[in-house]
Specification:
The structure is a single chain. By secondary structure, the protein is α/β, with parallel strands linked by helices. It has a single domain, classed as Bacterial extracellular solute-binding protein, family 7 (D-Maltodextrin-Binding Protein, domain 2, 3-Layer(aba) Sandwich), CATH 3.40.190. It contains 13 helices and nine strands. It has helices spanning 2-20, 41-57, 74-83, 115-123, 125-129, 175-183, 196-201, 212-217, 243-247, 251-286, 296-306, 309-317, 319-327, and strands spanning 28-33, 61-66, 88-89, 139-154, 168-171, 187-190, 207-210, 226-242, 290-292. Helix 2 (41-57) links the parallel strand 1 and strand 2. Helix 2 runs antiparallel to helix 10 (251-286) and helix 4 (115-123) packs across helix 13 (319-327). It binds succinic acid (SIN). Residues 35-36, 42, 92, 147, 172, 193, 210, 214, 235 line the site of succinic acid.
């Protein structure tokens, strides 16, 4: 009797399985978490990656993009990647301090004169090597992505460094950025990106530093009457994943995913270059705030007061690395 029932159940299971069609392997899911708006270089790069993967590997890999800090802040996302809660992100270089000191290089004020210099450095052996600087901690860099040069926004006009004395500025969680604001006798406050608008609106802080596209997409210009076009620093990203996830992929699939990611990065960098101009223009056109330019003499004052920060971090970052990055300007 028992045997008959067992056989009947087995037959039913087989019939149901055949009716359902062949058993398909579950696609690999890549959750890509980031903190900025979708219409930014990073937002558009992530969406492009998602589309390319859907087009080419639709049945094998699915990319899910979570923008606007929906899942994790930049400070929490690296831990989330290590725990396998998400598989990829592209945090700003400023938030990797717990995993590597090398990437703090990118926060040094007035290090790169423009994005071409950044490209030259990142293509060099030293620049490429930095992507493996967190390997022992379980993270690997898959590529660099630009946003642009940072500007200073504030509740009062900042023409020379003395104007910033005593003011409170929001920064990302980077000791280099903290030292940069202390150098101008201002108070740096490490706060998540998602809180910046409210902190500015309520006047809990006086200012912040960011790129034109972040100032525009997060509407900081609506609550900051002045933006100084200082180009004093760089906002750049590293696309990261966990070694465990990446090396666990089938070789051919990993190659295809990397190819799509590289193409998405090229696209994201084009968006970044365009947005540095167009989002600045949109802010000007809004008539909501005044853009201040620096004369060569004024700019020299900012350089003179901020550049000594390099010396403080030379040991941690590595003087060779700083020299290599600086020489990419020529
Ligand atoms: C980002 O661009 O990812 C965030 C920048 C910031 O926190 O200021």
């Amino acid at each position: 009797m028992f045997r008959k029932v067992t056989m009947a159940v087995a037959a039913l299971t087989l019939t149901a399985a055949l009716a359902a069609g062949p058993v398909l392997a579950k696609p690999v899911v890549i959750k890509f978490s980031h903190v900025v708006a979708e219409n930014t270089p990073k937002g558009q790069m992530a969406n492009k990656f998602k589309d390319l993967i859907a087009e080419r590997l639709g049945d094998k890999v699915v990319v899910e993009v979570y923008p606007n800090s929906q899942l994790f802040s930049q400070n929490k996302v690296l831990e989330a990647i290590l725990l396998g809660d998400v598989q990829m992100s592209a945090p700003a270089m400023s938030v990797f301090g717990r995993y590597t000191k090398q990437l703090e290089l990118y926060d040094l004020p007035f290090l790169f004169k423009d994005i071409d210099a950044v490209n030259r450095f990142q293509a060099s052996e030293a620049g490429q090597g930095m992507m493996m600087s967190m390997e022992k901690k379980g993270l690997i860099g898959l590529g660099y992505l630009h946003n642009g040069m940072k500007q200073l926004s504030s509740s009062k006009p900042l023409q020379v460094p003395a104007d910033a004395s005593g003011l409170k500025f929001r920064i990302m969680s980077s000791d280099v950025l903290a030292a940069q604001f202390k150098a101008i006798k201002a108070t740096p406050l490490k706060k998540p990106f998602s809180e910046v608008f409210t902190l500015l609106q309520t006047r809990a802080i006086d200012g912040q530093e960011n790129t034109w596209s972040n100032i525009y997409s997060k509407k900081f210009f609506e609550v900051q009457p002045y933006i100084t076009e200082s180009n004093h620093g760089l906002l750049d990203y590293m696309i990261v994943t966990s070694t465990e996830f990446w090396m666990g992929l089938d070789d051919a699939l990993r190659t295809e995913i990397k190819k799509a990611l590289d193409e998405a990065i090229v696209f994201g960098n084009q968006v970044a270059a365009e947005k540095s101009d167009t989002d600045k223009q949109k802010i000007i056109d809004s008539n909501r705030c005044k853009i201040l330019e620096l004369s060569p003499e004024e700019r020299a004052q900012w350089v003179e007061i901020m550049k000594p920060v390099w010396g403080k971090f030379e040991k941690k970052i590595g003087k060779d690395l700083i020299d290599a990055a600086y020489s990419a300007n020529n």
